[in-house]
Amino acid sequence: MARKRMGWKRVALAVVLVAFAGEVVAEILHAIVTAKAAARTKPYYQFSFHSQDGSRIGGNEGILRLLYHPQVGYVNFPNQRTDYFAINAQGFRADREFPPTSDRERIVVLGGSTAFGTGLDSNEETFASHLEKLVPGSEVVNAAVIGHRSGQELTHLATSVLDLGPDLVIALDGANDAFQIGGPAERWFDVNGGVQFERELATASALTHSNLLARIARMPIELLSRTREMAAVLAAVSIGGLKAVLPASVKDRLRRLVGSTESEDPYRFAEGRLQIEDAAERYARNAEKMAMITRATGGRFLIALQPTRSSVSAEPGDPRAKEIYARFRASVKERLAEKGIPVLDLSDSAGRIDAGMFMDEAHLDDRGNRVMAEITSEVIAGER
Fold this sequence. Notes:
By secondary structure, this protein is α/β, with parallel strands linked by helices. It has 3 domains: 36 residues; 199 residues, Rossmann fold (3-Layer(aba) Sandwich); 48 residues. The protein is built from 13 helices and 11 strands. The strands form 3 sheets. A 5-stranded parallel β-sheet has the order 8-7-9-10-11, sandwiched between helices. It has a 4-stranded mixed β-sheet with strand order 2-1-3-4, with no helix packed on it. A two-stranded antiparallel ribbon has the order 5-6. The longest helix is centred in the first third of the chain and has 37 residues.
């Protein structure tokens, strides 16, 4: 009997040692993959989240640091300087600070990664920098933050950007809101980062505020977190491969089993998924509020719906993505026209923007940013 008990102890010890050996291997692989991703600058900068004292939060690592913000969600961490970009003490992509007032026409650009200029080699290649050169007597502030959606732009405008007293606010955006269509219809689908923040808080709470038994139960999960991540990836790949080889008849049976039905309109999504009209309505409401705030302080407001590679390309590409963004833009323009809010749809640029100017689906190179700025400057000149 004693020998039998000793056998079980050896098995248990072996399982623990194998688990920890697997975690060590997974940790090494994770470090290699993370280091490679963190060094990436094209087609977009990899990023990391930080607290106010500069401590990194979460698993992301990258060349661009983002600061958790209680109102906006996150903003650019101030005072960054790399070989590719500089961010000033105010958190704007610039080599200089901006005083409260200016003797030049002050234009502020809001938006996500396209407006920020992710993947570009310098501040000089951004939309904002090109626009400043093209609009005589202007000073253009790049207040964009990668990943920002319309809800964050609205809050960023109200809490920080208005302090600059802008004469004109341009929201160069659209794709980040539209790319959520078809995904889970979260309550705040017009902001980015919320789900990740909640996950980080839930994990921290479980490790610190749960009862003793719950904390002990979570210890193996947290100690073997890299192995758990690898297992999740392998499971996703396996499921994806299984779906790819399943016959259509089997897929149909599975859909019926879980109560999923295909819509006659492929651009109407199942219940619980974000619909095109819902996303367009929320975006238009946010744009309307941005316009009201800007106009109330004596400024002008312009929406510049950003182009994407598929929206300007004659090639079919992903026809579903192309059609979704086209429908989103059409709905947004119709809603904002009723409110008297000017909209520049850069996808309708009479062939001036082409697919060759894109580094990926959404991010343009130096040439593409210059052309976007040229088109926008012509609209600004027409308003004067």
